[in-house]
Amino acid sequence: MIRRTQLSLSMMKPYRFRVLVGALVLAGTGGLAITSTVSASSSGWTAYIANDGSGSVSPIALATNTAGTSVTVGTNPIAVAITPDGKTAYVVNNGSNSVTPITLATDIAGTPIAVGNSPQAIAITPDGKTAYVSNYTDNSVTPIALATDTAGTPFSVGSGPEGIAITPDGKTAYVAISGSAEVTPITLATNTAGTPITVGTTPYAISITPDGKTAYIANYRSASVTPITIATNTAGTAISVGVEPIAVAITPDGKTAYVANYSSNSVTPITIATNTAGTAISVGSAPYAVAITPDGKTAYVANFSSNSVTPINVATNTAGTEITVGTHPDGIAITPDQAPTASFSAAVANSGAATRFDGSASTTPVGTITSYAWNFGDGSSVTTSSATTSHTYASAGSYTATLSVTNSAETSTTQVFTGQTVSNEGGASATTSQSITIESPSTTTTSTTPATTTSTTTATSAPATTTTLAPTRTLCSVKTRTVTIKRVETVHGRREVVVTHHRIIVRKRVSVRRKIAVKEMKIVHGKRTDVIVHKVRITHRMEPVKTCRKVAN
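-> structure tokens emitted (553 positions)
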């Protein structure tokens, strides 16, 4: 937390005073995170804004960029993070020394969870099991078990911990230590601190690339951002940005970092491939937090002094119309995009003919399915933008066909995480498989005579030889195939894939012609007479597909 005593009065910084036993204690910084509920995409996700001065959280429907009814939480809410399943938001209350859970389906706040003094920031592990909260005054971090919403034993870090971020593999947390210009890595398996890494002056916020290779640290007093190579925990060359950078967020594709410059009223984009800063984007007054939608198309910036949120078009780096929220917004989070569900049917043909596949039954909570990746089980695969495709199997046999789908936010089977809140909660439901039985084309041999007798006489007048072909009979079998059905169920709070197998009879539509007698009335010699007329009627029915062959008796 940046102490008010460190700030020029003319800067009008967004820091709060609390009196504790005669001591001046600052309650301090904000963070921003993105998540996606079962309604995501800039047309379905919801952003949750922590309003420091209002003691509330404002939901914004990103489809229309309109703010909804605020949810009352604790005193001086300063940061927000959302669980990977998009069901719960956790709000850090700096003035109440607590964290408030909010059930997002109803926007109802739960019982606050007590943590350390002057909590500053929060990050939720990628598996959604634990939240970690930095406590500025106590120089510690408190773990919270999210299954029970109970706080664990705090562990010590450096002086004045601010921002916190967790690696995508969930093994390490990085904590910005503002009092000593360092970042401390924490081994989460044991909650033990490692060797601090020296960065710029007053490190304040952290974000990590989705590939887990680099952490980016916003140095508030150095007007810079320091990249840290995670494999070696070494700091790279600092990148100059605007005045007093206070927040950083990375796009889901890992290509760009957006840095909020508090005293420049701007946001600086950084190209991660080259670590070069681009042209700053003007936003509202005192931008304090930033988050990016799961599709990577829009960045949302919380403006502390403007009481607003500014959307930025990532493709053009242009700011849109500000959205009014509560007083002094300083934290933001967007619901994570959830995994699509793959489903397909197959119209099976014999080998040498085209089997048709249809994935139009696949669904996604937000947006649309944009990619269908097919693996036909015979070494062939194809990716299509349409739901249907066909494939010809060269030989008969049993094959496992697999469909993996990707939605318009690029969510599929893989999780995307940049430190605090999951952006894209990929999962097993995006892939499904079926067993496909391919048979050989039917062949029929017809003999005009059931038996043939041939007589031959040798030159020596040997006895005649008679050869008789054995009579044959026809055997038929009904064609079946096995269908594998996968569905996702929630068991004890965890998503599990349940697999069932069903054997079904393959049927085909058959047209049947039959004659029927119909009584009709005719006028014969001026008299009405009933006559019987025979007509042909065509009906349809589904019959099992049979395979027949000739065998000897």
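The chain has a mean pLDDT of 85.
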